[in-house]
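Before a computer can learn anything about folding, someone has to put a protein's shape into writing. The outcome of that step, for a single protein, is printed below:
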Amino acid sequence: MTAWQADILMYHSISDAPGPTSIAPEVFKAQMQALADSGLPVVTPDALVNPSAPRVVIISFDDGFEDFADTAWPILRDHGFCPIVYLPSGLMGGMDHWVGGNIPPRPLMDWDRVETLAGEGVCFGAHSVNHSDLTNLDSLMLEEEVSGSGQDIAARLGQPVRHFAPPYGASNNSVLRQIAQHYDTSVGTRLGVAKAGDDIHDLPRLEMFYFTDIARWKAHLEGRGKAYLTARKTMRRVRAAIRGQPW
């Protein structure tokens, strides 16, 4: 297999809301400008079947927050970047009231906005129906949450949904098998750069909250960020061990 590297950027909300799942609009704008200046090709997960360059970038958003349409998309569109947005299909038009959601809750796009954005070139993937922790579900509920989400979105947009992201990045062998039956790729929250040979249904991403320092982000884009990324991985392992969570 030809060697390739995919920097899959993970975003949630582009807003001034508190917490690590929000990136301030001015920081996001600077991150995208640095990416544009790098000259690295920005692609969708469809390109991972046969990457067009040894190193590509995928810009991904979880949850489908309203601020994606209001704030992120105009910046991305100006650069000619096509992102993928993973949607919890049963919650569109509502708020992030799920476990771990923001306080105060943030609004999600409604289907009219999703359909408009799809017409403008935004790629959409599935993120379960109800933003459930898929590892806690029985086989029937797991099937409904995984396959049902893609079916819901496909019915709305009139096109197949090929990509998935499990909520919270929570997965196990049963979840991954279920995802692989219905989708071409899936991304999690494991920190790292995706490479040829990785499980295409369990790809790592770069949490962009770690790159709000634009100098550090530019260093990563220039190939000088390995030590920082390694340190961040180590810190995450330590925190996970303290909390008794799997890495």
